[in-house]
Amino acid sequence: MGTLKIVFTPEDLVRVRIASRPDPMWEMVLSLHLLQARGGGTAMGSWRRQVRANLVSTGLLTEVRDVLIPLAPAGPYFPDFLTPAEAQMGLEPGVEALVETPRRQIRHELNLLQTYYGLPPGLEDLARGDPRAIRDLGRVAASYCQVAFAPHMQQMEHAIGQERSALARHLADDGVEQMLDHLPPMIRWRPPVLEADYPARAAHYSREIHLRGRGLTLIPSYFCRTLPVALVDHGLPPVLVYPARRWSPPPITAHDPLVELLGKTRAETLRRIVATPGCTTTELARLTGVSTANASKHANVLRQAGLITSTRQANLMLHRATTLGTELIRTQPPN
């Protein structure tokens, strides 16, 4: 693990902004990293199974495996052109900016990628700047985003909204330096430097970014699960992408109004589905301490009440909370 140091000037402190929504292109790259990994808990295991099944059913698996994954390996480098700043306005502007990346930049960054991992045959046309290959990349990226996390957009927006609200509260009450001091623990404000643990091959690797009045955009990410990430090219608008802190619903108690409405076990079932989107019936049984048959019955009642939805993937039933179900569980922003 290395260290990233972001050096501020007084002008930079007044130019810190927080991304207002999930950045789809950063989420794309970081979700591809998770797709290649193992672990991450019940929710990530369920997500991987669902995404792989959906990639097969939509015919995208081969293109994602041959194009996107080689471009975004789970390692110390992936090309900056995959995460254009325009994506902060949404998926469509992000994909358009990706397709319009200057050919010189694509060649340069793929040469860097090649020094780390070699260049797979599926990327040769892209490296040559073939317009068709670049358009195909945009199409596959957009389709992957829809398959991989569009069904989870409610949870993504909720987690990032909670993180943004917490930071905005510190900013409004105490100022920008206090906000920087209340980022997750792997990020430390040591004026005038924001220091973060950083993925790197060398254990003592240290990297510095001097903002020089350009400011910094903080991008909390749903699929960033370990360490913060920054762009490699110092000439691009500076960003710090970091894991949005995980919201956990408050525990259900015997005096909770939700228990009076649903009963203790059913209330706990809803709570677990909200906290673990995409969990299976078997996982739900384990989380709530009931039999699989009883977990299925409770989920069926919640589904009929419009509090959850259930989707069958192969031989698995995956459960997610609806907006109404999520709203019934009172949320607390992170401290």
Provide key terms for this protein.
49% helix; 4-stranded mixed sheet; 3-stranded parallel sheet; 3 domains; disordered C terminus; 15% strand; 15 helices; Arc Repressor Mutant, subunit A; 335 residues; alpha/beta
Structure summary:
With 335 residues, the protein is of the alpha/beta class. Helix content is 49%, strand content 15%. It has three domains: 2-21 and 154-243, no CATH class; 24-151, no CATH class; 257-328, Winged helix-like DNA-binding domain superfamily/Winged helix DNA-binding domain (Arc Repressor Mutant, subunit A, Orthogonal Bundle).
Write the topology of this structure.
Elements: E1 2-7, H1 10-13, E2 16-18, H2 24-36, H3 41-57, H4 61-71, H5 91-99, H6 103-117, H7 124-127, H8 131-148, H9 153-174, H10 176-181, E3 187-190, E4 193-198, E5 206-210, E6 216-221, E7 239-243, H11 257-262, H12 264-275, E8 279-280, H13 281-288, H14 292-304, E9 308-313, E10 316-321, H15 323-328
Parallel strand pairs: 1-5, 2-6, 6-7
Antiparallel strand pairs: 1-4, 3-4, 8-10, 9-10
Question: Explain this structure to me?
Answer:
The chain is built from 15 helices and 10 strands. The two termini are 26 Å apart. With 335 residues, it is α/β, with parallel strands linked by helices. It is globular, with a radius of gyration of 21 Å. The chain folds into 3 domains: 2-21 and 154-243, no CATH class; 24-151, no CATH class; 257-328, Winged helix-like DNA-binding domain superfamily/Winged helix DNA-binding domain (Arc Repressor Mutant, subunit A, Orthogonal Bundle). The longest helix has 22 residues, at 153-174. The protein has a 4-stranded mixed beta sheet with strand order 3-4-1-5. The model is unreliable at 331-335 (pLDDT under 50). Helices cover 49% and strands 15% of the residues.
